[in-house]
Amino acid sequence: MGRLLYDLGRMDERTRTANERNSSKAGKSSFSWAWGLDGTAEERDRGITMDIALQTFSTSKRQITVLDAPGHKEFIPNMISGTSQADCALLVIDASTGEFEAGFGRGGQTREHLILARSLGVAQIIVAINKLDQVQWEEDRYDEICELLRPFLVQSGFHPIKTNFVPVGAILGVNLAKCEGDDAKKLLRWYHGPTLVDLLDKLEPPSRDITAPVRIPVSNIFKGQGSGMSVAGRLLSGVVQVGERLRILPGDETAVVKSIEVEENNVPWAAAGSNLTLALVSVDSIQLTIGSVLCPPTDPVPLATIFTARIIIFDIQVPIISGAMVELFHHSRDVPATISKLLATLERTSGKVLKCNPRVVAKATSAKVQITLRGTDTISSARPIPLEPYTVNKAMGRILIRREGQTIAAGSHLYLKPPFFMSQFLEQV
Ligand SMILES: Nc1nc2c(ncn2[C@@H]2O[C@H](COP(=O)(O)OP(=O)(O)OP(=O)(O)O)[C@@H](O)[C@H]2O)c(=O)[nH]1
C-alpha cells in the first residue's frame, strides 16, 4: 500500500526518504514502505499492522478509501471492524515458497480473512499475488497459487465474475500503477494483463440506500477541540448534514454535527457509502464508545439483548450446543454472548427448516438460533447492541460469532425476541 500510494503521488518524496532513513536506523529497512501506513511505534517496532489505517487516493476513474487491515491473527477484531466498512477487498498474497502455503493451510489467515470478508458483505475482490521477485517471477508459481485459491474463493461465496487476480512485485513497484522498467521485464515475459490500478479502476461502486435513515457505526473516537468529540465511521445509509442532531445508541444522548470530513475535505453533507469523520458538539462523551451507532432521533435503531439470527457455521472442530459461550461481533463492537437456543437447522440455500430444536449444530450447516448478550454478571446487566433485521438494513444486520479466538459462524439478525414485535408476525418472517 505504501508503494502504491507513492506511485500514485499520494506519498511525497520527503516522507518516503524519511521513512527509508528512519526504518533503516531502527534496523527495519525492509518495512520502509509499510511505515507509510503503519504509524504507531509498536506497529513499526513489530513490523505488523495492528489497527486500521485509513488512506485515500484516486485512480483515473475511482476515488478510493483504503482501510489497511491487519493480517495477523491477534488483531482479527480490528480486521472485522475495518472490513465491515468496506465495499471491496484487496487480498495480498505472499507468493514466496512456503509463505503462501502457511497462510492458506487449514487454520491459516488467508482462509479466515476471505471467509470474514465475504460474511461481512464484501462481494468484489482483487487478489494481488505479491513478492514474485522471490520466486524469480515464475509464471508456474503464479498459476499454482491462482488455481489453489480459485475454488476456495467460490466456496467462500465470491462470484468468479467479481474476482480478479493480478501478479505484482510491490516492493519494486512492479505492476501496481505501471508495468515498466527492468524488473517488470521479467513479468512481461508472460504477463500482459491489467495492472492493479487498472483493476481498481474497474471496481463496481455498490448501490447505496440514500433514502433510508442515517446509520453510522462508530469505528473510532478522538478528542476534539474544546468540549467536542470527533468520531470516524462509515455512513451505511441515508444522508447526513452539518447542523443535524443525531442520537447515540445505546443510551439516551444526542449530539449535533458541527462538521463533516470526507477524504480530508470538509463537506456540508455526505451520502451513504462515505467513510467520514464527524466533529460532534453538545455531546456527553461518556455515552460515546467505539461501536455506538449514530442515527436520527426520530428513527432510532432497535436495541437488542436477545435476538434471533440465521447463521452459517464454519469449519469448526467442536459443534455448537445450546448455552455455548461466544463473542459476538457487530461492526466495531464485540460483546460476550450465549447461543441460548438452537431453534432449527436450515437448508443452506433456501432457508427451509430441516429440523426443529436440534441438540447440536455441526460445521458447514445453517441454523436459526437465539442469541443472548451477557453482562458482566447477569443477562439483565448486558449492554444492548443497536441491531436491525437484515431485511430492513443489510449492513446493520450482519453479525460474526467467535469462540476462543476462532471465527465459528457468521450470519444475520432476523428479528428481536418477543415482546418487541408480535409473535405471529415473527413466525411469518
Ligand atoms: N521481496 C519482497 N518483499 C516484499 C514485497 N512486498 C512486501 N515485502 C516485504 O514483506 C514484509 C511485510 O510487508 P508489509 O507491507 O508489512 O505486509 P503486510 O501484509 O501489510 O503485513 P501486516 O502488516 O502484518 O498485515 C516487509 O518486510 C516488506 O518489505 C515484494 O514485492 N517483494
UniProtKB/TrEMBL annotation:
<keyword id="KW-0963">Cytoplasm</keyword>
<dbReference type="InterPro" id="IPR027417">
    <property type="entry name" value="P-loop_NTPase"/>
</dbReference>
<dbReference type="GO" id="GO:1990533">
    <property type="term" value="C:Dom34-Hbs1 complex"/>
</dbReference>
<comment type="subunit">
    <text>Component of the Dom34-Hbs1 complex, also named Pelota-HBS1L complex, composed of dom34 and hbs1.</text>
</comment>
<comment type="similarity">
    <text>Belongs to the TRAFAC class translation factor GTPase superfamily. Classic translation factor GTPase family. EF-Tu/EF-1A subfamily.</text>
</comment>
<dbReference type="InterPro" id="IPR009001">
    <property type="entry name" value="Transl_elong_EF1A/Init_IF2_C"/>
</dbReference>
<dbReference type="Pfam" id="PF00009">
    <property type="entry name" value="GTP_EFTU"/>
</dbReference>
<dbReference type="GO" id="GO:0005829">
    <property type="term" value="C:cytosol"/>
</dbReference>
<dbReference type="Pfam" id="PF22594">
    <property type="entry name" value="GTP-eEF1A_C"/>
</dbReference>
<keyword id="KW-0378">Hydrolase</keyword>
<dbReference type="InterPro" id="IPR050100">
    <property type="entry name" value="TRAFAC_GTPase_members"/>
</dbReference>
<dbReference type="InterPro" id="IPR000795">
    <property type="entry name" value="T_Tr_GTP-bd_dom"/>
</dbReference>
<dbReference type="InterPro" id="IPR054696">
    <property type="entry name" value="GTP-eEF1A_C"/>
</dbReference>
<keyword id="KW-0342">GTP-binding</keyword>
<dbReference type="InterPro" id="IPR004161">
    <property type="entry name" value="EFTu-like_2"/>
</dbReference>
<feature type="domain" description="Tr-type G">
    <location>
        <begin position="1"/>
        <end position="208"/>
    </location>
</feature>
<keyword id="KW-0648">Protein biosynthesis</keyword>
<dbReference type="GO" id="GO:0003924">
    <property type="term" value="F:GTPase activity"/>
</dbReference>
<dbReference type="Pfam" id="PF03144">
    <property type="entry name" value="GTP_EFTU_D2"/>
</dbReference>
<keyword id="KW-0547">Nucleotide-binding</keyword>
<protein>
    <recommendedName>
        <fullName>Elongation factor 1 alpha-like protein</fullName>
    </recommendedName>
</protein>
<dbReference type="GO" id="GO:0002184">
    <property type="term" value="P:cytoplasmic translational termination"/>
</dbReference>
<dbReference type="InterPro" id="IPR009000">
    <property type="entry name" value="Transl_B-barrel_sf"/>
</dbReference>
<dbReference type="GO" id="GO:0005525">
    <property type="term" value="F:GTP binding"/>
</dbReference>
